[in-house]
Amino acid sequence: MTPLPAAQRIEALDVVRGFALLGIFLMNIEWFSRPFTSFGEGMPRGLTGLNWLASWFIAYFVQGKFWTIFSLVFGMGFAVMLLRAEQTGREFKRVYLRRVLALGVFGAAHFIFLWDGDILFTYAVSALMLMVVLYGRPKPLLLAIAVAVGLGAALDAEGFFGVAAGLALAGLLALFMRSEKKPLRVPLFAFLLLLLGLGLSAGAAALWVLPDAPLEPRLPLTVFGPLTLLMAGLAWRYHQPPAQRALRMGATLYLFAATAMTLMGAVQYFGPDPLALPAASAASAASAPAVAAKALPPASAASGAEKKKKTREERVAEAKAEREKRLKEQAEEKALEIKTFTTGSYGDAVDYRARRFLEKAAGDFGASVLFIGMFLLGAWFVRSGVMERTQDHLPLFRRLALWGLPLGIGLGLASSLIAMHHTPGDRHDGWVMAQGLHMLGNLPACLGYVSLVVLMLHGGPLVSRIRLLAPMGRMALTNYLTQSLICALYFHGYAFGQWGMPRAWQVVFVLVVFAAQLAFSHWWMARFRYGPVEWIWRGFTYRELPRLRV
Hints:
mainly alpha; about 70% helix
C-alpha cells in the first residue's frame, strides 16, 4: 500500500513518462481545435509560415512517436508491478484486473465528459487483452468469443464481432507466449497461422479470378495472406529462447500492422482502382442511372433463382454508390462535430461523445493487438533488467539512439515526400502508403527517443537535468487528464470558445501549460505521496485509500 522508496523507483521510467506527456500534449492539442473526424486527412491545407512549420514538425517528429513511447512505458509499468508481486509473493492477477477496471472507468469518463481522443480506455482494453495473452484459460476464452459472436448476430451489431476477433487474436498469441510447459503450443500457433495465411491467400486468388466476386476485399486479402504466412515461418524459426518471445512478438505485431498498411497503400497507389471501368463500360454504366439507385437494394427485392445475375458494371456502380454514401456520411459527421464544439452546449458535447462511445469501445478491442505489441516490448525492457540497470546497458541505448532516430524520423520524412495531405475517397494520392512508411518509422524513433532520454540522465550536469521531468511522470495520469480539462474549457464553444487557434500558437499554449504543470508537479510531490488521480486509482486497486500526505 505504500509508495516505493526513492531508491527502489526506476527513475528513468518516471522521466520518460514525463517526457512522453510533452509529446502527447503537442499531438493532442490540435484535436481540441480541429474536428476529430478529419484525423486521417493529414496536415491541414493552406497553412503558411510558422503555422506550416509547427504543423510539419509535430506531424513528422512527434505524431506517432509519443503514443508508442507512452504505450512502451505502460508495458514497463505492468512488468514492474508483476516483478514486485513475484518477489514478495503477493497476489497479482486480481489486483491488476482491478487496476485495469479503474483505468477503464477513468477512460470512459474522460471520453464522454471531456474529449473523444481518449487513450486511457484503449489502454484498459489492451491491458485486459494482455492478461488474456499471459493468463487466460481456453474454456472461458472460447465461451467469451461465442457470447460475443452470438450477441453480434442477435443484435446485428458489428462491434461485438470486433470484440470476438480481439479475443481470438489474444488467445492465438497466448499459444506462442505460454509454451514453456507445453512445447506443442508453438507448433500449433505456427500451424494455425499457416492455415490462416493459406486461407487468406486462397480467398484473395478467388476474388481476383471469379467474375462475380466482391471487389473491395481483394486488396486486404492479397496483402494479409502472404504476411500471415511469413509470420508463421518467423514464429516457427524464432520461438527460442522463451525469454526473447516478448521482444520478438512485440516487434512483430507492430511491424506486421505497419507493413500491411504500407503494402496496401503501395498497391492502391501503383495499381488500378478496382472500381474503375474501361471507357466504353464506364459510359454504359453512366447511361444507366438506375444502377446506382440500386446500390443498396432491400433484402426482399430479389432472392434465389429470381435474382438476376449482376454485370461487372452494375457491381462497380453499386460499390461506387456505397463509397459515395460513406463519404457523404463522413462529411455530415464532420459538420455536426464542428457545430457541436463551436456553438453547442456542454450537454450537446456530452451527448455527441456518449453516442460514439460504444463504437469506440468495440474498435479498441480490434486495435488492441497493436498496443499488446508495444506492451510486450515494454515488459521485455523491464524483465530483461535493461530499465532497472540502465547504467549497465548504456551501449545498447547508444545504438538505439544512433540507429533508431535517423531511421525512424527518416522514414517519416520520406513519407512526407509522397503525401502530407489526404482527400477522403482519393485512393491514388499515396496517403495510405505514406502513412504506412510513417508508422514503420515510429517504432525505431520511439526507441531512439527513449534511449536519448536515458543517455541524458547519465550525461553531464547540463543534460542530466532532464530528471526534472520525474515528478511530472510520477503523476502522469493526473497531468494527462488536466491537459484535457484545460484544453476542453479553453477551446470548446461552451466555455472560452477559442476553437481554431493557429497551429504555431498551439505550440506556445502547450509549452506554457506544460511548464505550469511541471512546477505544480514538483510542488505537489514534495508534499504528497501520489498525484490526486493516482491516489484514487491506487485506492480502488488495493480496496483501501492509502495515506496521501508525506
